[in-house]
Design brief:
Number of helices: 8
Order of helices and strands: HHHHEEHEHEEEEEEHH
Distance between the termini: 117 Å
Number of domains: 1
CATH class: Alpha Beta
Structural class: alpha+beta
Largest sheet: 7 strands, mixed
Strand content: 15-25%
Shape: elongated
Helix content: 25-40%
CATH topology: Double Stranded RNA Binding Domain
CATH architecture: 2-Layer Sandwich
Length: about 260
Amino acid sequence: MFTLHPVFSALVLGTLTLLAPSMARADDTEEETEVLDWEEQVPVEVELWPGAPGHAAGTRELKLVQRSTTGKVVASQVALSLLTRSISGQGFNKENLRGTKVRSVPNPAFGPMPEQVQSALADYFAAHPAAVPAEYSPIQLTVKEFSLIYRELGDENTDYVLQQEIDIGFPILRTRFRQLPGAGEGAKCRMDETVSAPLEAWQADDYAYARQVVEQHANQCVSSFVAMLPQLFPDPQQGPVEAATLGVPAAEAGDVVPEGEQQG
């Protein structure tokens, strides 16, 4: 008697079920998502901005430029002109004067600011892991003007103005004389309002007022950078995050007033 093989019998009866390859080896078709280390992709750096030839625009400590400093420079230029019997048509910019370093007022860009920026980045990428860039994208604190300079040369009672300028964002990079996309994008932190006071008020209690103003402006600068994170590092999977949720020190409200000028 002729007997069909069980497999052929199953085919004839329509009872054979074939296991789909995707079901048989599901593990082989699963794609692993690469998790990027944001600290390697987005390091935080600090750079001094170059100024006039022989001078750096930024400094590690507050630069004090007094009226007497300018007077000496002017006298030297006049003496040089008389010796060479020529008068140079080039003037000078008081911001470019070397001045005196005030070591008790360090630049916050070389102090707490990098750690604050790194902490904000950690919070942002923890909430938005998909926003970590695949390409190397450093964040740079570019230190520019940081000085205390007289307002009027001819006024012996002139006020002194605090100038503080820091950029936080992508560094300005160029390749073959072409600026890379996104280069220089970030928070541009400058004093929105002129902060001035007599020199004695700035110098009181070892420049306590200056340190207070500098700290407030630094916190405002970091907050401005944090607000731009969704723009600098967009998350393709989620919407933008609120800057207030990232744990950045908030700037104190209200104007800062020297202790000697506060009213009871």
